[in-house]
């Protein structure tokens, strides 16, 4: 524990009050936070006695979480990289600055085949044990390129102005070329979020009437 500070402290960052430990906030001694909470500087306080930092309050949660875990955990829909990078630079948390650069480049690499926005629909034909992919052709290729052979892809797709409708992928529970879980992981990994789902039919229905449909949307760009 740093001299002069209680073990548990409240920090008001731009109107957002965070409760943490002095060990966490001063974990990086080379950062501005490490210097501020080293006991060698005076820190402003608000009217309630909380330590005060005049910076973007909402962004500070990502700074603090990184100091707690040493891992950068951002939601898939996160698109405020410029602001978070500015905050990381201000606080001079070098490991976070580097982690942000790597994370951002990875996301950009995943978006290289499209403008980053669009919809992919995953349908599950349980009777035929197949996944059906529908959406813009460049998006489907981007996300599922490892499972699609280009020659078969070109011949099999039903196209309408670059739109893919019901491209069939073999699927068998427990031993599939591409399982539903695999498809969801790929979509989440490329920044898509589940917007809705529907389904119908029953085991007693005629062949092919039992289905499930999942709508994934990517709204944000880096």
TrEMBL record:
Residues 7-108 form the BTB domain. InterPro entries: BTB/POZ_dom, SKP1/BTB/POZ_sf, T1-type_BTB. This is BTB domain-containing protein.
